[in-house]
Specification:
CATH superfamily of the largest domain: DD-peptidase/beta-lactamase superfamily
Shape: globular
CATH topology of the largest domain: Beta-lactamase
Distance between the termini: 95 Å
Largest sheet: 9 strands, antiparallel
Number of helices: 12
Number of strands: 26
Number of domains: 2
Length: about 500
Amino acid sequence: MKVRILLFLFLLATIISYAQDEKSKKLSLFVDRVLAAAPPVPGVSIVVVNTDSIVFAKGFGWADVENSVKATAETGFYIASTTKPFVAFLAATLADKGKIDLQRPISDYAPFKNFSDKSLFKNITIHDLLTHQSGGDNDFLSIKLAYSGDYDQKMILDLVEKHTVANEKGRAFEYTNFGYYLFSILLKEELGLDWRDLLRDMIFEPLDMKNTTSYISVAERKDLAMPYNGILSDTPQRAYLMKTDDTMHAAGGIISSANDMGKWLMFQMNMGKVGNTQLYSREVLQMTQLQKIANMHKFSPVFEGNGYALGWRTGTYKDTPLIYHFGGYTGFFAHLSFLPEKKLAVAVFVNHELGSVPGNLIAEYAYDLYLGNTSALKGHEKYADVTLPKLVEKNRNAEIKSRAHFAKRAWQLTLPKSSYAGSYFNPELGTVLVKSENDELTLTFGNMKSIATAIELPDVIRVELIPGDGMAIRFVLKDHQVQELRYNGISFIKKQ
């Protein structure tokens, strides 16, 4: 009898193993098809997990094209706004430990309690910050924390106090980075704690996420994916704008690998349990995953979004409840999601700015494959083979047309280009450098840099300090001398 039971168990394990191998092969072949259909995209890393284990983890293509470094399941990718679920969980855990109170107004905490005018902050709670219901915003913070990296703590505090404004929607839900910026500032000023170190000590290390960090200086010592953008060439083009320690912020500041993200997603589905150990309370996990706000949205054909929890978006996938978040930045796209009822989760990382379509397509295929929705797979395969190449070509043609349009523009500068060169200063935002070399004007603002192109307006130029995001810079002249430049409506005075 025992022999029969053992034989049955052996055969069952063999069948399950064979089925998993077949699924792994199918998913690998599909990812290869997606990359073949979108040649500008260099690499992808993916993980699929259930509550017990990682069932698939693999990298495809290139992490670093120039140095011939392949993407693997251990490659670190910048995950952008999918940082928010980590920071929100951190906040909930600190509240559970009595360090903070999510329902207290932030005006009870430093630095806000020390501001001379607290009116904008006194009715905002930490919970409001993390659920995007603060009713405030501050464009200066995004420029500094996410892009330029040219700041110190005093400058950030001054920007918060002097340049935070009420947004037009009032206290209604509006997804921005603002609340997470303010929460990290509160941690630093009230508790003397750095959100990056807290994530390391309270999440990354306990979950054994060895290739996950909020410090670029640490990630650079390991296998790190490089960012790529552009669509004109089938050869991936390296994006110039790289993240630094100073531009890793609490709304988007984690480097992680597919394997590590599998551990985080298993932790989420197991409600705070790692193996047989209840690492954090089930109630904390439930609180972060429970929808707080109803908000119908659809960022991709993949999911039907219906609300926001604490750091997570909520929705459905083919009528099945879903918890998820996406992240995007110059040269990167990240997809995190899980189906609590099905005990299945997927993470996809892409190191190209156009990664959302291929990344979400891969995630959808993975779900249908592992859920047994075999009838849906052919539709995904057709999309990869037919629709995706057409989208790439459509975007490529649009870019060619756009560049041709810009090339036709005539310069309308009223002085020689060399007259605009110099250093321009704003007391809140710092210095913009303008150089004139080889009949080109180049602007540098912290980590950001752009060669200017023409706009057919007097003394106005176009720059892309953030790749793909063109904006006009206007120079102000007096008595045939350049006095200032205006960037996004903000004045920078030229140093004479």
